[in-house]
Amino acid sequence: MTTRPQTIAFIGLGNMGGPMAANLVRAGHAVRGFDLAPASLEAARAEGVAVAGSVLEAVEGASAVVTMLPAGRHVVEVWSQVAGAVPAGTLLIDSSTVDVASAREAHALAEARSCPAIDAPVSGGTGGAKAGTLTFMAGGSEQAFAAAEPILKRMGRSVFHCGAAGAGQAAKICNNMILGISMIGVCEAFALGEKLGLSQQALFDVASVSSGQCWSLTTYCPVPGPVPTSPANTGYRPGFAAALMLKDLRLAQEAAGTAGAATPLGAEAERLYARFDAQGHGGQDFSAIVQMLRGPREEV
Ligand code: NAD
Fold this sequence. Notes:
Helix content is about 50%, strand content about 15%. By secondary structure, it is an alpha/beta fold. The longest helix is centred in the middle third of the chain and has 29 residues, at about 165-195. Bound molecules: nicotinamide-adenine-dinucleotide.
């Protein structure tokens, strides 16, 4: 297998997959894409992706296939089709965020076809997808990772091999569980500080160089002002939507249940984001949960 396949099939050309496929085109690959949504296909065509009429048409003659789909059931469905059609040795990469069990099911489909495969979910959001600065966390064999790494590097800045099949998804949900919990912690501190008469800037100045320092505070500050580039300064336009954070926290709880891991704060973070989503805020950036946490103590 060459390290730089001539033709890459890309299935799922949405908010993330569209710009990722465009970066592969920019890197010199011939990319054949498919998506169920006509608007996504048109946007991809404008970026130089050759649009196919089906999954099977997209993968014909491709030496690697990348999928970027909403959830585990979509990945298993598409990989079933792909594995039934491609020759042995075709590299399969899934970058969607899905449950660990579905990721392993997809790996098994690939293995039955003698296709090297990795789960390689991403962190970095739509901004990272456009800029080609995503972080990939991959699970699969050494051989599959070595084949996939050059392709992933064309869409991202950092690529980690986390372990065997499913390890990429495990890293992703563990990281995002930290993120959901830490964001809620930072929001609670601002809400408490406000009620104690502490200015937001004073809390930021102290905590950002003290033991409360974390990414949710210093890069993604949930109140406007201290970090001018955070979504709080643009009316909480995402960024990373609260509905997607809820999805990832649910995946973490599902995995914790299966693995028998105690994750009480992860469970509470899921409950709070579910409440925020049910109030109609799923489309806002996940840092907007500060508004709910400012509410009356007995209502949160
Ligand atoms: P999206 O809904 O914009 O895109 C998914 C695309 O998949 C859609 O265009 C849909 O039409 C297509 N699709 C669904 N089923 C299909 C099928 N059977 N065949 C072909 N196409 C099909 O979602 P997105 O924001 O691009 O996210 C994709 C994945 O990346 C998700 O798993 C998400 O959790 C993950 N993710 C998203 C972000 C983000 O900030 N948006 C960040 C990190 C990870």
